[in-house]
Amino acid sequence: MVKLVYCIRKRSDLTSEEFYHYWQHKHGALIRSLAQKIRAQKYIQSHTLDTPINQVLVQSRGLDPTPPYDGVTEIWWESMEEFLAGVNSPEGMEAAQQYIADEANFVDFSQSRALLAEEHTIFDFSAKGEN
């Protein structure tokens, strides 16, 4: 599968509570309603935890001390061909206009990053995993 990974920072005029609520409940519902138009198979939001452990992770690795992303979105497609077909179709392009316009309500585009990736599972010990 191919996935879009979108590392998000919230707009500075929003509180964390406002940001997470909007992202999860309003934007999440919008993406769900547009999933078939863009041929997406799976959508997950990972909300950054407010914990001092994050600072330990930064210090222990000598990472850039810039505040962490507020979260990560992952959207999956069956293949690169499905991704391209979904985003290049007329309904997919219309859907993209809708969700990008909605992202402007809560995302700081200048501080966020997006990329396409392919997963390579090394292990999966979860209840659903096969290892």
Describe this structure in words.
The chain is α+β, with helices and mostly antiparallel strands. The protein has a single domain (2-51, 66-118), classed as Alpha-Beta Plaits. It is 42% helix and 20% strand. It is built from four helices and four strands, in the order βαβαβααβ. The protein has a four-stranded antiparallel beta sheet with strand order 2-3-1-4. α3 packs across α4. The longest helix has 23 residues, at 16-38. The protein is globular, with a radius of gyration of 16 Å. 18% of the residues are buried. The model has no long low-confidence stretch (mean pLDDT 93).
Question: What is this entry, summarized?
Answer:
With 131 residues, the protein is of the alpha+beta class. The protein has helices at residues 16-38, 53-61, 80-88, 90-103, and strands at 2-8, 42-47, 71-77, 113-118.
Helix-strand blueprint:
Blueprint: E1 2-8, H1 16-38, E2 42-47, H2 53-61, E3 71-77, H3 80-88, H4 90-103, E4 113-118
Antiparallel strand pairs: 1-3, 1-4, 2-3
Helix pairs in contact: 1-4, 3-4
